[in-house]
Amino acid sequence: MGTVQARLSDPVDLSLHAVRLLGCAGADAIARRFHLDSDVVRERLLDFEAVGWVAHSDFAGSGGWSLTEAGRGEDRRRLAAELDAAGARSVVVDVHTRFVPLNARFLNAVARWQLRPLPGQPMAANDHTDHRWDDRVLDALGSLGRELAPLDAELANELARLGGYADRYRYAFVRACRGECRWVDGLGIDSCHAAWMQLHEDLLATLGLERGPES
Question: Which residue did the predictor score with more confidence, 47 or 1?
Fold first, then answer.
């Protein structure tokens, strides 16, 4: 009996969904998210713009594409259809349920990475000179990465686009452990925080949920 293959997503759907996951990004970054051809993605973005699903914004010389409300609705519709066609809804619901408590622990760990309370300064920034403090946070982040791996594998077995988050997290974590502090939560890089939050967004989008209190 052959192994069941994970469902491969339509490249057009991936182009739209990548915009949601990245929030606001240029065409090249959107293409890289799912290893798509940049030129083709640029054409698709223009098509999406023409029907009102995406909009391009510029801020002080930089900018990117983001979803409109209509685009979020279209992305949600496409993901729901894909999820049901793959028969994967129960698996994704179960993974999301197990992810929620891990997410609370992750947010706590990142807060401790960013802040190290001092006498009279409960919100003092962590300057990363207390190596014992940082090592305890890294231990927590490492544990979370190990617990994330089997969830990632379960998702990837159902929908190929949902895989790879654990590898991205692990790569960033290794760099953080080498003393490159920004790989925990740095902006503009594929940090632990970026990989984790994109997975959270992916689960919410796939199940048609919004951010907020989860159970």
Answer: 47
Long-range contacts of 110-119 (CB under 8 A, 24+ apart): 110/184, 110/185, 110/193, 112/136, 112/137, 112/140, 113/137, 113/141, 113/184, 113/185, 114/185
Its pTM stands at 0.92
The whole-number pLDDT of residue 215 equals: 42
Q: From the centroid of its chain, how far is CA 151?
A: 14
Matching residue, tokens 């790879």 = 164
Residue entry with tokens 């802040």: 115
Q: Which pLDDT score, from 0 to 100, does residue 210 have?
A: 83
CATH topology of domain 11-82: Arc Repressor Mutant, subunit A (1.10.10)
Residue 128 has pLDDT above 50, yes or no: yes
Task: List alpha helices for 34-190, DSSP H.
Answer: 38-50, 69-86, 89-114, 131-158, 165-177, 182-185
Q: Domain coordinates of the chain in residue numbers?
A: 11-82, 88-207
